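Sample log: pectinesterase.
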Amino acid sequence: MAGKFKKDGQALAVSVVGNNSGFYACNFTGYQDTLYANKGINLFAKTSISGAKDFIFGQTAKAWFESCDIVSVGAGCITANGRDSDANPSEYVFNNTRVSGTTRPGTAFLGRPWQSYARVVWQNSELSDIIHPHGWKKWEVVNTTNLYLKEYNNSGDGAATANRAKFSGVLAQPVPITDVLGENYKTAWWVDTTFLQRNLPSFRLPRGQL
């Protein structure tokens, strides 16, 4: 699925506003606001998502990204989570993902907080040198006191945490998938556990197809 590519404006490829949604081996392409993961519980598995500015965003969804390829095609932030209160369940967790792109080294960020309780975790993932040493970028009007922007056990040239933004942090242990999908996710109709267990190659398009 592709949003209309333009460098100065929103172009959604997909909008998720229902509960219990699973996406498998998909390809979402765009520039700004590619994937609107906004409501419900979402699973994205072995899927390619490309963009440049806040291209994975939303307000109340709990979303688990498993073995996905995240491709930055321009300078900007990958995520913009809009969790606006402690009662808001929203959380994005990226597990075993690979971050790469065509933008220059150090010009992409793991995310910026759309709202003051934003919650995003990157874990067990490969981060290329496109990631800025600060990792995260501040949204100027957002209070950083209650942000939850964390990393755990990432690798690659963009994974060093020594110079990360002061409002971010490093976890002592990974977030379990049950925190996002629920304790009974293996029997949920929308979760294809057989697909998740397959040793499939990551879905990554050649550069010329971005």
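Observation: The chain has one domain: 15-195.
Observation: Residues 15-195 form a domain with the Pectate Lyase C-like fold (CATH 2.160.20.10).
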